[in-house]
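Dissemination and training. As part of the outreach component of the grant, students in the summer workshop were shown how a complex can be specified as a set of sequence lines and then modelled as a single object. The example used during the hands-on session is reproduced here so that future cohorts can follow it. Participants entered these lines:
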Amino acid sequence: MPRALLATVIPGRGVRRRAASALATLLMAGAFSTCGAACGRSPAGSQVARVPSAPEHAGAALLPARVRRLTDLEYESTVDVVVGAPERIADKLPPDVRREGYSANDEQTVPSALASRYDAIARDVAHRAVTDRLDRLVGCGGRPSASCAQTFVETFGRRAWRRPLGEAELSMLLTAFREAQGSAEGVAGGAHDAAAGHGPESTAGFASGAEAVLTALLESPSLLYLTELGSGPATRGVVTLTPFELASELSYMLRGAPPDEALLDAAASGALYAPDVREGQARRLLAQSDTRIHFRRFILEWLEVDGLEGTAKDTALFPRYEDLKHAMLQETSAFVDEVMVFAGGSLRALLDGRFASVSPTMARFYGLKTWGARASLAGTRRGGVLQQASFLAAHAHEDATSPVKRGDFVLRKLLCKRFPRPSEVGIDTVLPPPSQAKTTRERFSAHTSDPACSGCHETIDPIGYTFEGFDAIGASRTTDNGKPIDTAAQVDLGSQSASLRDSYDLSQWLGANPLANECYLRQAFRYFTSSVDPKVEFELLALTAELRPALRENLFEALIAFIRSDLFILREVRS
Amino acid sequence: MSRLGAQLLAIAGVALVTSCSAAPGAPSSPAPIFGGQGAVVAMPQEAPLPADSGAPAAVSAPAGPCTPPPKPTDVALLDDFEDGDSHLFKAFERDGWWFAASDPTDGAKVYPATSHFQPDRLPPAESSKDNLFAAHFKAEGQKDWGATWGVGLQWESKGIRCPLNAAGFVGVRFRARGPGTVRVSFAMPETQPTDQGGSCTTSCYDFHGKFVYLSDRWTDYLVRWDAVEQGGWGTQARFDPSRLLRLAFSVSSKDVPIDFWVDDIAFVDAREAEALAAAARTQPAGTPSRSR
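and obtained this result:
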């Protein structure tokens, strides 16, 4: 529980400080974890689906009951939705802690410096929102009133905290509203009367009240954290998520953004416990065009290329790199869009799409004759993401290729095989010395001749050698230091082996490889569930195995299978 | 073929469009991923690399005597109707005419009449010194495919026909007052028949579009390129804003009678679209849903 955050994000002064402190007290008292009876209850007479219970799932691996902080981008999208205007916030925050390369996880912390940053952002955003758009924000037709204030607090509270406010929360926020309003008007008592419906109110006072509430909502832990705690006691160590937790889970999972009104309404009706309803909501969210941004992000984080624009190369060797980085990432994003929409986001299509989604700049870089969303790759040895410049540049050194980085990526992220880092086994890493007389492959062959290294590098390096036909920024090449390049390799994974001519062969081999497809889905589950837990991942794989064969490689159907399952609803309480 | 002849053919073509759109075969659930729109970066499906470096190539060969292919237009305003005539805004680089069409139901009425389009003067309470005119569309009695009003975007001066390249923008905005349901659509060569400047030879007229639900108050509407989709019954094509042939506002027979106004139609860039979307999100509760 981020008590340090509560102590820090609401430092305030004067009226706002009193109001915010009261709110903090309320949140500390437990609203954070249970949000009161309003969350779990179902309206009388509504059609409420059967709620799965713990005993039905004894022994099944479940995701943990937990609280996790929103990522920078999730926080930005949440604030966007609350104030109804796009804000550039993520750039103002320190980078998220990554777990297995993914930014959404439960290891994010809130050190005091970050808490101060959230506080400043909340105040700034709330002030600008109220100053610029008060009428559109509160919708009272320019006639502020006590009822308008209450509607404002309830509406924005539900939007920000993704659930209805409890009675104590509503009361506390209204108190904050009235105190700020009274302070602005300089007649605290009169404002109290007005807010209670006894007299007219000024627009300036109303704006101050709205700003204080908006600030409190935006800097609240109830906004900043997602809970997966359920509302009742655990049964055999298992809790059931509340309907509003389900709504948030669904929306942040598929869109990286808070639930919309339709989803919150579905939660309020209790209908989200029905698999068909969850599936319907999920497909509705997936059909929205801007959902693509969250899926692009998955592929960029999976490929570990999302930070490409922050990388640099030796300008003497690669003078064009600075101008190409953006186009490289745009290419991968456009390609991902195509694969998601027209090929179900399958690994096979990502690795062997046989087309490029390139601008004229990237088309020239690749030596293609055409450009566009489906530019032909005929005559090249490029097929999908592994031969795209973004991937090749991200997994290389500043001045040279790196068979180790590229091979290691394939093993970790495409085959889910992890080899220990040299430091973990007490090996002092020394890169092969530069040489004008050897190819990179010849230099790195030392790895496999040194007994201390060969245990791992006999597996890693051959995979990396298949990429040697591309330089450190992904341009095709046939020679290295004037010598012909050898991209052929024998890949031996114990249970599987393959003779490959180059990385294009590797892509085709991986695309058709069940192990790689399983690994890809595990990677997807890590991103979309914000969790890394092999036991749970195998439970989720079992769900996809029940799909019709034609759908088993479809990323969206795998996610839908999870969403439909009780695994989506239940959480294990871990010590 | 004269331009008037082409317009008449276009009108007849629109009739077929809407009648087909009401036919069975509409998209069924589940809804397509991301609205069925693949790469949203403005680019064609596949096009030859341009000879000169840097500038994006235009597109695959457009129909008609259009050489070289059009460069992206940077003129945003299509029409504000203040000139009071049936042509597009004079500074716009195309010489389009507004037209209207109705299905052949006996007694059906459409306003303006099919070949007599002109903007109406706004009611005093809705006009200002610099905003006196708007397009006023009315239809009633249609029982077949409905009615449509549109404007060609493909005519350059001197009778040269060439698709309009609007790839530098992300969509179209307009102001309108209803109430009513209107489909805003864009014709491209793949969905427009060959004799009307397109390349379509079968199951034509399944234009890309988006339904917009008009409020009974003047409201800004935005139709983004990445939100338009076909009806799903005709020749399928990727929407390509660099090859627009026509813009139309259509109503189905189930949505007549209808009486609505349209004004200030303009292309928008990403920044303006973002601002419009943000403004739309802050609409007060109870505001009618704007678009589907």
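Chain A touches chain B through 47 residues (CB under 8 Å). Students were then asked to discuss how this feature might be tested experimentally.
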